[in-house]
From TrEMBL:
<feature type="binding site">
    <location>
        <position position="244"/>
    </location>
    <ligand>
        <name>Zn(2+)</name>
    </ligand>
</feature>
<keyword id="KW-0645">Protease</keyword>
<keyword id="KW-0378">Hydrolase</keyword>
<dbReference type="InterPro" id="IPR001304">
    <property type="entry name" value="C-type_lectin-like"/>
</dbReference>
<dbReference type="Pfam" id="PF00059">
    <property type="entry name" value="Lectin_C"/>
</dbReference>
<keyword id="KW-0862">Zinc</keyword>
<dbReference type="InterPro" id="IPR016187">
    <property type="entry name" value="CTDL_fold"/>
</dbReference>
<keyword id="KW-0245">EGF-like domain</keyword>
<feature type="active site">
    <location>
        <position position="245"/>
    </location>
</feature>
<feature type="domain" description="C-type lectin">
    <location>
        <begin position="608"/>
        <end position="719"/>
    </location>
</feature>
<dbReference type="InterPro" id="IPR001506">
    <property type="entry name" value="Peptidase_M12A"/>
</dbReference>
<dbReference type="InterPro" id="IPR016186">
    <property type="entry name" value="C-type_lectin-like/link_sf"/>
</dbReference>
<dbReference type="GO" id="GO:0004222">
    <property type="term" value="F:metalloendopeptidase activity"/>
</dbReference>
<dbReference type="InterPro" id="IPR000859">
    <property type="entry name" value="CUB_dom"/>
</dbReference>
<feature type="domain" description="CUB">
    <location>
        <begin position="322"/>
        <end position="466"/>
    </location>
</feature>
<dbReference type="GO" id="GO:0006508">
    <property type="term" value="P:proteolysis"/>
</dbReference>
<dbReference type="Pfam" id="PF01400">
    <property type="entry name" value="Astacin"/>
</dbReference>
Length: 720
């Protein structure tokens, strides 16, 4: 899977190529839409006209149906959808744009030439029969249940079961051919699909597998879905994202048109440039024809469009993640991800991949060899975590927000562990509104991966290990009435956490009915109660509860966004906002409460992990080993000074930290590095190491090494 990093870099610079001059009609005006398509598609003019007619006639019907469905979805989930939109506005305040503007999407490129008139979902080529089938004009209920759109009775002949012959048009430049070769190499090494390049017309003609997939420069980005065994496969041109279009050619549909997409995203058609076109572009597949092989929805997969595709006003969004924390993950920026590899292998029934030496079940979704850190808890425990920083500390200017761009395009951090499955792409972090949100893993493993296309990526993550199902003691807490089972830290109050959303008025009355009052504090115990609420409600999709009062208005605290919204407390209308709530009551007798493990704050800098909590040498060594790392070993000048600079940026005043230098018992025993590397560089401060048995552990301080007692608590640096 090491090829992934190479492919990402290539895809970052991919774009669509056009011919040197526009194709023009008899009047000298540039051709557009179906008239342009007649000159480049290889289809007969009659078939082009028929496809355009089918799309035009059915687009409005599809649009009406989807708008009605969307209205029902919005009515049922208006509060959550509005919260997602508010969160997007917060993200936009801190977001930067790429110099020269964001690169155009595939659909934007095609719409500039009017090709949306003859393409389905923005970039899919269809024959008249396929278009009728797609829109249900001739539907008879006998479709194959596959991950891609398939003509009835044709599967599996629509797969490239005998390999993929491909060729290049002579006009296609070498740079783009190299890009195609990289994508082909990736799929060939990570699936059982074989590719063979046809380098001459004679090879194309004599190829035992037909048709031959041809790549050529043109006026847009498009492809057929799967292999068409009845005729010439549509060629593909324009390469902003070659991997996406080759994904179509191999049999993939768009991720955002999955039958179950409404569970994960909300599509707002009135934000699009043309509502009818948008309805066609976001037309959902039916469950009976869409098999995703058990893969959960993949926001960042290669087949997912950006959340801005087709937008009417620049800066607006068309797609909103139902879990707002996934908003920055919508849309692929890096090429094929693990979920794409998994699904392609399932589609082609690949049980061994590449040369046949690796089984599909041996592919690692959490590969530790790519700028990745694994944090593992004991069995039966989970990891609670929060990202506190992503940026580029050593850069001038907006160093704390350098990577905050659409889709975290230039760099950021991806985290897996929140979901029960490892298959989909991890959640991306790069903007300050995403920071300091407490989340918990579904298992005992947390995977943190840094990436970047420009600059570099610094980040900091705090975590702590907790039981899978933290519960309060089973005996009734002395002095607290029934259901008030959480004692305050002071021992003077009892709390009752309720996750069922209610208006403030109803929540207030509910607390009164049990003898208590609603808790609205923003001070004592808020962290503890927030943790309890997250544990109870987080995985049920309930993100907020009543807390705080400002200017006479009652606050709703959203723990996913770490933000407040304020509304009228006495609103009793049907449109009144609802949230979970916490009741409290005076406690009659004190009890002793259990302590909770404190978070472990860390800062990630290149191959180094900077511990921000002082530990003994043994504690620091053990913490590094938990992170599959070791205390840093130094073999040249400048490295420790650079780390010291980062420490001072993150935690001003930090001057001394443990390094992986220690000696065994005895005055004469030598100092060695804990990782066993050679002791080939020295930087001792004058007078060190001293002649004492007690000072056996090495630290870096004020530009030099010193020896200290090993039980002294210091900051520390781990090295991958």
């Amino acid at each position: 899977m090491r090829l992934l990093a190479i492919l990402w870099c290539l895809l970052a610079s991919a774009f669509c190529f056009s011919n040197d001059r526009d194709r023009v009609g008899p009047d000298g005006a540039p051709l557009r839409g179906k008239e342009l398509w007649k000159t480049v598609s290889g289809m007969s003019p009659e078939d082009v006209d028929e496809v355009a007619r089918i799309i035009a006639e059915n687009r409005e019907k599809v649009g009406d149906r989807l708008r009605q469905e969307n209205a029902r979805i919005h009515e049922q989930n208006s509060f959550a959808i509005n919260q997602a939109k508010e969160y997007v506005e917060e993200l936009k305040k801190s977001m930067r744009h790429l110099p020269g503007g964001d690169p155009p999407s595939i659909t934007e490129i095609n719409m500039r030439s009017g090709l949306d008139e003859v393409l389905v979902e923005g970039d899919i080529v269809m024959t008249p029969d396929e278009a009728r089938h797609y829109f249900g004009v001739d539907r008879d209920g006998r479709r194959s249940k596959r991950q891609a759109y398939q003509m009835e009775g044709m599967f599996p002949r629509t797969l490239w079961s005998d390999g993929v012959p491909y060729a290049f048009d002579s006009r296609l430049n070498n740079k783009t051919q190299d890009l195609v070769h990289a994508v082909v190499k990736f799929w060939q090494e990570n699936t059982c699909i074989s590719f063979k390049e046809m380098k001459t017309k004679q090879e194309m003609k004599s190829s035992p597998v037909k048709p031959v997939l041809v790549f050529f420069p043109g006026v847009g980005c498009y492809s057929k879905v799967g292999r068409d065994p009845t005729g010439s496969n549509a060629t593909m041109q324009g390469f902003r994202n070659v991997a996406h279009e080759i994904g179509h050619a191999l049999g993939f549909i768009h991720e955002h048109t999955r039958w179950d997409r409404d569970k994960y995203i909300y599509v707002e058609f009135n934000k699009t440039d043309d509502e009818q076109d948008a309805a066609s572009e976001y037309y959902k597949a039916e469950e009976k024809e869409n098999n995703n092989y058990g893969k959960q929805y993949d926001f960042g997969g290669v087949m997912h469009y950006k959340d801005t595709d087709g937008v009417k006003v620049p800066g607006e969004k068309v797609m909103f993640a139902n879990n707002p924390d996934y908003q920055m993950t919508i849309g692929n920026t890096m090429g094929p991800m693990y979920g794409d590899v998994y699904e392609m292998n399932m589609l082609y029934s690949c049980y061994v991949i590449g040369s046949g030496s690796v089984r599909i079940d041996q592919i690692n979704a959490t590969d530790p060899h790519r700028c990745t850190w694994h944090i593992t808890a004991p069995e039966g425990m989970v990891i609670e975590y929060r990202v506190t920083f992503v940026g580029a500390l050593n850069l001038t200017g907006d160093k704390y927000n350098k990577h905050c761009r659409e889709q975290c395009y230039t760099g950021g951090v991806k985290i897996k562990g929140l979901e029960k499955t490892w298959i989909p792409e991890g959640m991306r972090f790069c903007c300050s509104p995403q920071f300091n949100k407490i989340m918990a893993t579904s298992s005992n493993l947390l995977v943190v991966e840094a990436y970047n296309f420009v600059y570099y990526t610094d980040f900091a993550v705090e975590y702590r290990i907790k039981p899978v199902n933290p519960t309060t003691p089973t005996p009734r807490v002395s002095g607290c009435p029934a259901s008030y089972d959480i004692p305050s830290s002071s021992g003077t109050e009892c709390y009752n956490v309720n996750i069922a959303p209610k208006s403030y008025s109803d929540a207030f009355s509910s607390c009164l009915a049990t003898g208590g009052t609603i808790w609205m504090s923003q001070g004592v115990d808020e962290r503890m109660l927030n943790d309890v609420f997250i544990t109870k409600a987080g995985k049920l999709g309930i993100p907020s509860y009543w807390r705080g009062i400002k200017d006479g208005k009652c606050g709703i605290y959203d723990f996913r966004r770490n933000s407040y919204t304020y509304t009228e407390c006495d609103d009793k209308s049907q449109l009144a906002r609802k949230a979970g709530y916490i009741c409290h009551i005076k406690r009659e007798t004190p009890v002793i409460t259990a302590t909770t493990q404190q978070p472990v704050p860390l800062h990630f800098y290149g191959d180094y992990i900077l511990g921000l909590t002082p530990l003994s040498f043994a504690g620091a060594k053990a913490r590094c080993e938990e992170l599959n790392a070791h205390l840093i070993s130094l073999h040249k000048s400048g490295v420790a000074a650079e780390i010291q600079h980062v420490y001072n940026l993150r935690q001003p005043g930090s001057s001394t930290f443990w390094i992986g230098l220690h000696k065994d018992l005895g005055l004469s025993s030598p100092y060695t590095w804990v990782d066993g590397s050679r002791f080939d560089y020295k930087n001792w401060s004058p007078g060190y190491p001293g002649k004492t048995v007690a000072e056996k552990c090495g630290a870096y301080s004020e530009g030099k090494w010193i020896a200290l007692r090993c039980d002294k608590p210091l900051l520390y640096v781990c090295e991958k």
